[in-house]
């Protein structure tokens, strides 16, 4: 079965624009019952759409991941809820394995889980140690990390203060990676302040340094965010180009989170220009990829975007909104029990 998947059936997956009766999961058979991202209601996502971004060498892993689900990824199926809970459990199991995770790694996992309070506490504890030891590299990185938590919690003033401290330390000590990271996060803050031109400048500074360092996985999100800022300025061609550059680099580097983020940003692009069907398709793909990389926080964000597209297309979004409420209850319960 695996040999056949690699040698034969994957050749035509990239040609699947919506459902496809020829792809190996035969998504076609469910279309009449549930609809499909190409023609029908949101919520029934052909796996071939998600597979379009996946390099051949890891496609079998994705097949194994979905094998217990029905042929299309159905957000209304109970198995989707089970998989959502498993993605949270996987992070929690990793967090309990103290021998393999540093404190900072644990903080990143809590941030991914959406437990910003615990993440902040761990980052601040490590920052105090870095200050005591005068470890400039860690100080610059940790001020950046705490700045991100501030931003995620909606405190832009505190976020700016921390990221400026990070940038000052990084530049004073000629720390290229940390300088680039600070520039990238200043770009994000300027986006939220609706200073789109300034945001683009900061992201481009970050890109230039990351390219010199050969850190393509850090170039990818900056490209995507440059695209979003151009979108806000209504430079639609530039916006699409940068987001697609981000997606293509992610594919080239087998960077699943980058693929997911790029697809999410493409959905924002299509939402803005009013091409709702294409936007819906991209947000569905993003959600499938976030499920694969176990990011429950972003799965919920994707579902909210799906509901937005349903509303824009004048379709009933009640089922998706109910699903969001259910998953948010599961999510909150799991974090509280952590």
How does this model look, in words?
This protein has helices at 2-7, 31-34, 47-51, 56-66, 78-96, 103-113, 116-133, 136-152, 156-172, 176-192, 196-213, 216-232, 236-252, 256-273, 276-292, 296-312, 318-336, and strands spanning 44-46, 72-74. It has a two-stranded antiparallel sheet with strand order 1-2. Residues 1-44, 57-61 and 63-72 have low confidence and may be disordered. The chain is mostly helical and 338 residues long. The chain contains 17 helices and two strands.
Attribute tags:
17 helices, single chain, disordered N terminus, 338 residues, 2 strands, mainly alpha
Structural class, judged by helices and strands? Answer: mainly alpha
* Poorly predicted parts: 1-44, 57-61, 63-72
Strand content: under 5%
Bin the helical content.
over 70%
State the end-to-end CA separation.
39 Å
Oligomer: single chain
Strand order of the largest sheet: 1-2
